[in-house]
Design goal:
This protein has about 650 residues and is α/β, with parallel strands linked by helices. It is built from 27 helices and 22 strands. The longest helix has 23 residues.
Length: about 650
């Protein structure tokens, strides 16, 4: 929450409750990992302990690592990121709404920014000097003072004025024809009317009868080639299946117990994954499996550096590709091999790695793997029982399948941006690339489901996961609200449709905040007494709703006179749900996070050691662990060639001579 919202107001939540969805989706993968261990190792079950705090903190985009990495903290900014005096804008007004535009720089993103500036120049809205700036090195130019911040602000104004001349539809068309990194900010109605979702038959219709009739619910989170999903019936009525469940015959374990109860091995040891993942959403999925023992070989190229290596926070604020906290966090525990996949000689190496692995994962655009010659149909001819997953913005079919880009775009086009913000202002959007934090946990569950399916049937399969689609269950109540009430679900700041008071209130130190949520009359009566207004303790929920602004002002007057920990602990001791809004330093010091070892110091080849976040759930018998930070470029290439593939010196010399290894 600290990172979301306008800098002149309180930190924001998404206007649909999200916190408990995150451990739910984490739990799906956790259950399947525990089942895998039970089937393959001990025959024993275990207890899975999920933390909503740890799971939801995945959505901080590794910015919680700023403090332990000695990196400058970021400040919140609606529709972007504020890093010191630099305001990086990622969402912009357009002619008929808002649009997410990845107006960023560096080796991976600078060339895409150049494409946008070419279009702006063609339309006569910027001069050649503006168009031809060094967009690859632009961040460095600003940091070193060669490009004044004022000039960067002028360029942003040029971009903003151009976007105001275009509609969302025109900009979306340009995303395809000009290969631009942009996507419209959609409403719940836009999502329901999406042609992409219709073509992929994403929604499932459930007939509720009576006045409600048929409603469309978010459907399967991914498409499986060998095991089509089951169409779900509507939710059961209260007690509908009680008799049937009680009359079921007793169940007996069908997996023999083979080992002692205490097993030091991690649950997924022996599972081998060849990882072509890219940036955030893909690598975050395989990172879950690495924590629990999967052997993951991560392929990358120094000639096409992964965007994640260019993203902060950086160790000691040194913008070195090996110092990115985000890269190390998303790829901790994996082995790294640097290889130029564009060269023909790469095919034989990849095929040898294919013979080694159980699963192939990739997160390129739909044409990416096919262009390299490593698409599923090609690879399965070599390995018929292959499990392969593809994770991209919109999936591998439908009219928007070719839209390539980042999670900010998927979050915008999937409806999360529009419902986050204040009612009297434009959308703020959740911080960063929100769907990048939802979809990977679901992809991890899909991969484990496919592994279990192959254990039972001997069949591999292909998993097509759309980052936008898989995240929509977290927007389900807004989509249902739109259908039932016939109106678009709107952003509500920090207010809640059920609980009141419900908000984030300023504390005595500047820009420190306390979240308070009264979920029943008793909690409100206690809070009223605590702030010295026992005369209001008997207000009903409806009365509190009618006087919500007044009550918020009274609470704010009370919190402004108090320090964070003082107010938090006082209200908690009285039974009022409250907590100070954590930033990176406070999260590092948080007693619960420390108890669960959320932050881990691990070995790193270049840094000596670095900090990453630990597993976000715990298992009672086979704990997960993080053994090292993300690999440096090519760190494990020689080891993989010799120990995994068995290549001798002559073979490795051939590959080096072909300039295949990096």
């Amino acid at each position: 929450m600290w990172q979301t919202g306008d800098d002149d107001r309180a930190p924001l939540r998404i206007s649909l409750p999200q916190a408990y969805y995150h451990p739910c989706i984490e739990g799906a993968a956790a259950i399947l990992i525990a089942l895998y261990e039970r089937q393959h190792t001990s025959g024993l079950g275990q207890h899975i302990d999920l933390s909503a705090q740890q799971s939801l903190n995945h959505a901080a985009q590794s910015m919680l690592l700023s403090a332990p990495l000695n990196a400058a903290p970021i400040d919140r900014m609606a529709g972007g990121i504020k890093n010191g005096s630099l305001k990086i804008q990622l969402m912009w007004p357009c002619k008929d709404g808002h649009v997410s535009v990845t107006f960023l720089f560096g080796a991976a993103l600078g060339p895409m920014t150049r494409l946008l500036m070419n279009w702006i120049h063609e339309e006569g809205m910027c001069d050649e000097a503006t168009r031809d700036k060094d967009w690859v090195n632009y961040t460095r130019l600003i940091e070193q003072g060669e490009e004044p911040v004022a000039e960067y602000e002028r360029v942003k104004q040029v971009v903003g004025e151009f976007l105001l001349t275009k509609t969302k539809a025109e900009l979306m068309d340009a995303a395809f024809t000009r290969r631009l990194l942009l996507a419209p900010v959609t409403t719940t109605r836009d999502v329901l009317d999406s042609q992409q979702l219709a073509d992929r038959k994403f929604f499932e219709a459930v007939d509720h009868g009576g006045d409600i009739g048929e409603l469309r619910y978010p459907g399967a989170i991914a498409k499986f080639s060998a095991a089509p999903s089951v169409v779900l019936p509507q939710a059961p009525a209260l007690g509908q299946h009680t008799v049937a469940v009680l009359n079921e015959p007793p169940r007996a374990p069908h997996v023999p117990i083979r080992e002692p109860r205490h097993n030091t091995a991690r649950p997924l040891e022996g599972l081998k994954i060849l990882d072509f993942m890219w940036v955030m959403a893909g690598p975050a999925a395989s990172r879950v499996l690495a924590d629990w023992g999967a052997d993951i070989i991560r392929l990358e190229s120094a000639n096409r550096i992964d965007t994640a290596r260019t993203l902060m926070p950086f160790r000691d604020d040194v913008a070195d590709p090996e110092f990115s906290g985000l890269w190390n966090n998303m790829n901790a525990g994996k082995r790294g091999m640097a290889i130029d996949l564009s060269k023909p000689e790469a095919r034989d190496v990849v095929y040898d790695l294919l013979d080694w692995c159980d699963v192939v994962t990739e997160s390129y655009s739909p044409r990416g793997m096919k262009g390299l010659g490593f698409d599923y149909e090609t690879l399965r001819r070599r390995k018929p029982d292959l499990i392969m997953s593809s994770s991209c913005l919109m999936g591998h079919s439908g009219p928007h399948a070719s839209l390539a880009g980042y999670g900010t775009m998927a979050a915008a086009i999937s409806g999360f941006f529009n419902i986050t913000g204040w009612p009297d202002r434009g959308p703020s959007g959740p911080f960063g690339a929100y769907t990048d934090y939802v979809s990977p946990r679901l992809l991890a569950a899909c991969l484990m489901a496919a592994v279990d399916y192959r254990r039972e049937t001997g069949q591999g399969q292909y998993i097509d996961l759309s980052q936008g689609e898989s995240s929509l269950p977290l927007l389900a109540t807004g989509l249902l609200y739109d259908q039932v009430n016939g109106e678009v679900y709107q952003r509500q700041g920090n207010s809640d449709p059920v609980f009141v008071p419900h908000g984030v209130y300023p504390l005595a130190p500047e820009d420190e905040w306390l979240a308070i949520a009264c979920t029943n009359d008793e909690q409100w009566a206690t809070l009223a007494g605590a702030i010295g207004r026992s005369d209001l303790a008997s207000l009903s929920t409806a009365e509190r709703r009618a006087r919500e602004s007044e009550l918020d002002e009274l609470i704010e007057t009370w919190t402004k006179q108090r320090q964070g920990s003082q107010a938090e602990l006082h209200l908690q001791s009285l039974g009022v749900p409250s907590h100070q809004v954590n930033n990176s330093p406070r999260m590092v010091a948080d007693l619960q996070a420390r108890h669960r070892r959320h932050f881990r110091e691990v070995p790193h080849e270049r840094q000596g050691s670095t900090w990453v976040e630990g597993p976000r759930f715990a298992m009672s018998r086979t704990p997960g662990d993080v053994l090292r930070g993300g690999p440096t470029i090519g760190q494990d290439t020689f080891e993989i060639l010799t120990e995994v593939l068995g290549y001798d010196g002559d073979r490795i010399a051939e590959l080096a001579g072909a300039e295949l290894l990096e």
